[in-house]
Amino acid sequence: MSKALDGVRILDFTHVQSGPTCTQLLAWLGADVIKVEKAGEGDATRGQLRDIPDVDSLYFTMLNHNKRSITLDTKNPKGKEVLAALIKECDVLVENFAPGALDRMGITWKYVQELNPRMIVASVKGFGPGRYQDCKVYENVAQCAGGAASTTGFDDGPPMVTGAQIGDSGTGLHLALGIVAALYQRNSTGRGQKVLAPMQDGVLNLCRVKLRDQQRLERTHVLTEYPQYPDGKFGDAVPRAGNASGGGQPGWILKCKGWETDPNAYIYFITQAAVWPAICKVIGEESWITDPAYATPPARLLHLKPIFQRIEQWTMTKTKFEAMEILNEFDIPCGPILSMKEIAADESLRASGTIVEVEHPKRGKYLSVGNPIKLSDSPTEVRRSPLLGEHTDEVLAELGYSKDAIAALRAERVI
Ligand code: COA
After folding, report:
1. Which residues, at least 6 apart from 367, have a Cβ–Cβ distance to it below 8 Å?
2. Which atom of ligand 1 is nearest to the CA of 135?
């Protein structure tokens, strides 16, 4: 079966997490992704957080599926010749070097345009133009500078970063969308363009509701949906939300049976207005259906904390899965807190290809997250990540280099 991005060639200069997330997604959608790595070293993540000596780490293998790897010293004049040939052949150059690194390599926008005016040059940077534009940035810096950390955690604790890699993987997703849009626009203009996804901007985009709340707070001086605050005083900036829902339906994380020993025996419970009578019946507080102090959403906002405490008395009598089953019968929105161990074993995620088992020649079988985006006419087959330089000869041969020319480049340590 054909793939959505069949025929699209990506010159992949990405490393670590943000850029590789983007190019992995493009590869899963069918693009031919040629990852360029420093000879002898490769992407730094190959060697980071290793669980098996001398074998590419899971950090690397899980972010670089379905790609080809070539080694190339792009600062060597002969390496630059190979690079020029690749720029002529490819549709998109994707990079997430530190600010200015691509220019220092001599790969300016002008240089690329002269070689291939149809080429799209796509970049992740920590910050967009402005006072921090020259800074190097990793995941948690972006979470902090993009507004996520100041709004995450509990009100009586410090700012907190979140486990979801919204700075790196989140920005990689933003960049992939920008690339696909630029490819589409090129169909009518015939021209490439620059695509920039700054990590701070990507995190802020994912924190959009917090900027909404900042403006609500400035107007009304209160965010009534935060259970911990009806009796508290708000400051002048959106506070940390604890486990409050970001939407109009109040929610909280509640203990379930076994919480004393199992750190994940919890459930997220949403007191959706539409099912309030059902919630009252399930927890045995039927009088709350008509009691004016509880009957309407605005009235309930004044008692969120005690309401959740009462619901928790009920959830603590059930395991998270038992509670889920009962609540789902009444269409009450809720979700178990699943550990990574539970997710790894989840049959539905395995059946849908979101959790996949991949065979690697050096590490054997490992688990990975497959493509979370499902296209009915472009199914994803997850293939293992490449070994360092595994496809150097193959790609150079495709560019017209003879066996002798390849051997000469190798002898001079260009590849
Ligand atoms: N051949 C020769 N040189 C190469 C090369 C190759 N194939 N590939 C990379 N290099 C060089 C670069 O040109 C650069 O050289 P320079 O500093 O002399 O210009 C050097 O290797 C290192 O690149 P750099 O990007 O600065 O790596 P770093 O390890 O110092 O920094 C980051 C890592 C992630 C902090 C930085 O790349 C960054 O801020 N990126 C943008 C934001 C981002 O994506 N962050 C999240 C990462 S998940």
Report:
1. 344, 355, 356, 357, 358
2. 39
